Amino acid sequence: MIRNSRWSSRGQRRQRDFGRPRSKKIHEYTREDAIKMRRKVFLILALLAVGYIFYLFFYSDYFKISQINFNGQIEGFKTEETTAKAYEIMSNNRSWPFSAQNYFTIKISQLEEELNQTNALASFKVAKKFPRSLEIVVEERLGRLLWVSSEQTFVLEADGLISGSIAPEEAAKASLPVIYDLSNTFVTTGETRVNDKQLALIMEVWLNLKNYDLPQIELDYFKVDSLQANYVKIVTKKGFELHVNYLASLDSQINKLKKSLASGKIDLNNINYINLRIENQVIYK
């Protein structure tokens, strides 16, 4: 009976233990903690990796513009001045909070536009070169002239509009046609226009005079007596002038001169001017 009682009580205990929730063992707690710890470590490493990549791409020197290369050259152009101006523009156009000279955030179109505004004689095209360089293509501005009035030099566009002023030392470097306005017309930048027909004649002479093979005649600069005049004065490197107008073709006027020179009637070493404006006549002094 004692034996049966022992087994009976043990069986009852087993039944009672089966319905009671068991506590977690030590190794189960350790495994969950390890998983949580690994997740935290992975998250920290991921954040560090993202932070490093962000720093590398946007703040490190590896993608910082540190070299500017120029392609093309024009007379009197100084790369040092344009390089300094490019860095100044980049600094002023900083995309906060990023670096002003970062390869990925630099504003190329704005840099190109502002560079072109700073130079009246050259035009610029800017491109990025991976990972930290810029290439600037330099070209001479076409269709521009220099207009001198009241001892000031201005930039004259091909459409006849005075677009801005230019320093004398910069103008001296330019290989552009120079026109002296003898009437000293008051110039307002962005508003003053010159005579379109005068301008067209000047450009035709500038582009074509050398093709006429005129002996001892090399173009130096131009003069206009006023904006209303129908003629222009071509000043040669020998100092004498050729007077031509836009009422007749340039060809007809230059051909008259060639015939007179061929006949030996004009000594180019002892004249002040040759007037070709009168039909069928060559007048010189």
Terminus-to-terminus distance: 158 Å
Strand content: 15-25%
**Mean pLDDT across every amino acid position:** 83
Please state the CA-atom Rg, rounded to the nearest Å: 41 Å
Shape: rod-shaped
Strand order of the largest sheet: 6-5-4-7-8-9-10-11-12
Please give the number of β-strands.
Answer: 12
* Poorly predicted segments: none
What does this structure look like?
With 285 residues, the chain is of the alpha/beta class. The protein is 38% helix and 21% strand. It has seven helices and twelve strands. α7 links the parallel β10 (241-245) and β11 (273-275).
List the helices and strands and how they pair.
Elements: H1 2-19, H2 26-58, E1 67-71, H3 79-92, H4 108-118, E2 122-129, E3 133-140, E4 145-149, E5 152-156, E6 162-165, H5 168-173, E7 178-181, H6 196-208, E8 219-224, E9 231-236, E10 241-245, H7 250-262, E11 273-275, E12 283-284
Parallel strand pairs: 1-3, 4-7, 7-8, 10-11
Antiparallel strand pairs: 2-3, 4-5, 5-6, 8-9, 9-10, 11-12
